[in-house]
């Protein structure tokens, strides 16, 4: 997934009436169906303004690698979170309304 053009991402409503996550991604392994978990890589998130409950979130991500989130403005009520922060290169991002997340 590559999103190179500047864009505004506005998540106005999430589950149970709360604020939605602006950029939410995940990979969900279904081992019980005999489907092996696949690695997720080469995701690029660049030059966005993201407004939501959380700016960027990735869940169930032990196999992520070579992902990039750069030059984004994240305006959030919660806090961005990445299941495997070591699989991400972060730089040039501005987090507003919350303290800088530990992954940054």
What does this structure look like?
With 104 residues, the protein is mainly β. It has one domain. It contains no helices and 13 strands. The chain has strands at 2-3, 7-10, 23-26, 40-41, 44-46, 48-52, 56-59, 64-65, 67-70, 73-76, 81-82, 88-91, 94-96.
Give the topology:
Elements: E1 2-3, E2 7-10, E3 23-26, E4 40-41, E5 44-46, E6 48-52, E7 56-59, E8 64-65, E9 67-70, E10 73-76, E11 81-82, E12 88-91, E13 94-96
Q: What's the Cα radius of gyration?
A: 14 Å
- Taking strands numbered 1, 2, ... along the chain, how are they ordered across the largest sheet? 1-5-9-12
What share of the residues lie within helices?
under 10%
Query: How many structural units, i.e. domains?
Result: 1
* Overall average pLDDT: 77
Structural class: mainly beta
How much of the sequence is in beta strands? 35-45%
Order of helices and strands: EEEEEEEEEEEEE
How many E strands? 13
In terms of per-residue confidence, which ranges show pLDDT below 50 for 5 or more consecutive residues? none
Alpha carbon gap, first and last residue: 21 Å
Q: How can the largest sheet be summarized? A: 4 strands, parallel
Using the alpha-carbon principal axes, give the shape.
globular
Number of separate helices = 0
